Amino acid sequence: MDINFKKVEYIDIKELASLACAIWHEYWTCILSPEQIDYMVENFQSEKAMKNQVENENYTYYFITANNKNIGYFGISDKNEYLFLSKLYIKKEYRHKGIGQIAFEKIKEIANGQRIILTVNKRNTNTINAYKKWGFKTIDSVVTDIGNGFVMDDYIMEYS
User: Fold this and answer.
1) What is the pLDDT of residues 92-115, one digit of tens each?
2) pTM > 0.90
3) What's the CATH superfamily of 3-114?
4) Where are the domains of the chain?
5) Does the N-terminal or the C-terminal CB of the chain have fewer CB atoms within 10 Å?
6) Using CA atoms in the order 141, 20, 46, 129, what is the torsion angle rounded to 10 degrees?
């Protein structure tokens, strides 16, 4: 399988948001309620939210492609002291094939020696184990009120 990365251009954000919506509604059902998934997609992964992140929060998104098909994506934000890895998602049928590791190699290349920090849901065990395998260390935990009665209960992890 030929894995590549394509920087998401502003014009492609609608397609990215559609991919994000599909992946989130498939992936998060074992951890979050359908209501929280809908709320988070609308507020963090919708076309409007992603355009705002690119325009105002220094975000860059990349499609993960296999054989010229978008099979996932990641989103990063340069915070000066570190690179924030905000999102790394792969469609179900492509998981557990080493693609996340390949994507992380690309993210490290982009970081160019900078620390990489991310937040991960405390109940997202498989992903936490993958991050640990890649060399991330848990440095803190945080509960963030995201509105509408929902919280994100996360570990903060760092790769340096």
Assistant:
1) 999 999 999 999 999 999 999 999
2) yes
3) Gcn5-related N-acetyltransferase (GNAT) (3.40.630.30)
4) 3-114
5) N
6) 0
